[in-house]
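hey so i finally got around to running the thing on that chain from the lab meeting. sorry it took forever, my laptop kept dying and i had to restart like 3 times. anyway pasting the input first so we r on the same page abt which one it is
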Amino acid sequence: MSNLFQSLFVFADAAANATPNAPASGGGLSSLWIFLPILGIMYFLMIRPQQRKQRQIQEMLSQLKVGDRVMTNSGALGTIVKVNEKTVRVAFSSSVEIDFVRAAIAEILPEEKPAESADAKK
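ok and heres what got predicted. didnt touch it at all, straight out
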């Protein structure tokens, strides 16, 4: 048993004192160059599209006006009755009006076109 421990210590000591055949690497700076292209790819695939989408949302919120048909983040559909600097009042029926923060508006819905009559299609 003692021969086993002695041989393990000799092997560990030899491995610690051995010089590698390969030349030393450039250190931590060379591994940094590997991550730069990865960071660039992440920027163009994740960060830049998110910034573009955020800019579009801010533009849409700044264009809100009375009479726009909108959908809130919760999915409720209504028509804007009043617009303030920070809030928007949305009417869901003739008797139900609720104030929302501008950021609660998910999108402006396109105007509904009147349905053509069945006779006009023939």
